[in-house]
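Researcher: Can you fold this with magnesium ion in place?
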Amino acid sequence: MNYFKKILRYALPYKMYGFLNIGSNIFYALFSVLSFMALIPMLNVLFEKETALRVKPEWSGLKNLKEFVFDSMNYQITHLTDSKGQMIALLYMVGLIIVIFLLKNIFNYAAMFFITFLRNGVLKDIRNDLYKKSINLPLAYYSEKRKGDMMARLSGDVEVVQTSFLSVLELIVKEPLTIIFTLFGMMVLSPKLTLFVLIFIPISGYIISVIGKKLKQESSIAQKEQGFFLSLIDESLGGLRVIKGFNAEKYFLRIFKESTQRFYNISNKLLNRQNLATPTSEFLGVLVIAILLWFGGRMVLSEKTLDAASFIAFMGLAYNILTPAKAISKAVYSIRKGNAAAERVIEVLETQSTLDDKVDAEAKQTFDSEIEFKNLSFKYEDDWVLQDFNLKVEKGQTVALVGQSGSGKSTIAALLTRFYDVNKGQIRMDGIDIRDVKKKSLRALMGLVTQDAILFHDTVKNNIVFGLDHISDEQVVQAAKIANAHEFIMNLPNGYDTNIGDSGGKLSGGQKQRLSIARAVLKNPPIMILDEATSALDTESERLVQDALEQMMENRTSIVIAHRLSTVQKADTIVVMKDGRIIEQGTHKQLIAAKGIYKMLVDMQEL
Ligand SMILES: Nc1ncnc2c1ncn2[C@@H]1O[C@H](COP(=O)(O)OP(=O)(O)OP(=O)(O)O)[C@@H](O)[C@H]1O
Ligand SMILES: [Mg+2]
């Protein structure tokens, strides 16, 4: 119920549609009762039961409502029969029934029409919020979770919330109202028979809810499984080359089949249980009808306390209760199922980012003097990745990080851009701890070229502009030229408007790298972080890009990570790392002269 309330908050902007729906449903319920009541006078005409009434009946209070209404109808019919004949009277009755049924269905459609906007609106807004949340959550959130799980929540779970919860929303007014109005109509016809129905409703309700008990749990397992195989699809399609190259299709197919088998099993259970709702309530309903037939039949035949036409109408009404009763029991099941999905949706929406800006965080506009890593220690999970790391980067300097794979170089870049927070020590920019700076303003000061070029299914131009506003085509071309990418872009079928495919799949590794360099160049930030930015280029291209980058970095502060040591010789400081610690530090000349690890690495690469 708690989740239901939270989801309901999303309906608030659409409440107007809700009211229109309620209004339509009130009329729907009213006309659906009237449609059965209207049968009575017609049946009476057919059976010629009613004695003609030629005096207009007088209103004598609510207590005699039934007599008044029926007498009025009788009076009208008598009047019609007298003036126009029996067949015409019958025709009028048929016409009345058609009109009432028509109105009932028009209001039914109107109710569904209005609620549609509310349902789809809520679906849209929850999805938007979920997506916003999912791109705002810190990277650390995803290291333990599968991407597919998030995808399942964004697609499947939201859908379930829409179909289950919100269809319930529709039922909340419509079906109970129909039941109440119908009961009222039945009460007017025969209070005694109505009593039987009233006793039976809570009993059926109980039986139905017992059957639906395990639905939530089963639904939750099913959604999780869906997350698993969505993940698998995502990863397999992304890694098709490797899967094919290593003949791993069989392995992946097996894992996938196991997952869909589990999904099959749990979905079968779930659906079969859910499908029990309608037959169970229908059968329970027919039991009620049977009891009514027995008692009502006796009232008509032997007790003569009920006339046949009223009895038939009463049975019609009793059957009319079955539909909403069935709908309600189905809704009970829906809520159970929807609860599991809503829980998964709300769980994401309410996840507190561990990297939220402080309330009094500073919006830093400029980078003025220095970046300082101070006694910094960091771990992703249990093992320390960086320990007691100390480094100063003055404004305008280029600092190169070199060292063996896994020594923590990329981690430094991730900490500086505050994708993660340090565990011990601090990173200070112009003397301010970066945790006291607004993340957006911090990242606006930095340009990042990641180790693996990250591109999107979009045009070359959009991949370079990437989120920046007011960029002219000339600026894009300029950036591409600096990154030595202009030439190959012009050779693409549509130049800058060529779509580069999923993750830039239509480009070579070096081309992808040059695009991501162009992207950082265009952003033109005071601080550049280049993580193996030119590693995929051939020597000549690398030389070209390197020259351009060096030119660009002249008045800029940069942190350059590189394996190919020839590319960092001109750096103001070269930092040699091993196992998360700095083991050597100095200029190229100093380090060569020191004849330490750096010299050894350089010698090895020169060979
Ligand atoms: N998201 C992560 N979760 C857990 N551990 C991680 C994560 N990213 C990196 N690590 C670990 O942190 C250590 C340092 O990784 P990092 O990426 O900083 O190395 P690197 O120096 O950039 O190496 P390379 O030269 O191969 O790029 C590695 O041992 C790695 O296993
Ligand atoms: Mg790295």
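Model: Folded with magnesium ion in place. Residues 282 and 326 are 7 Å apart (CA to CA).
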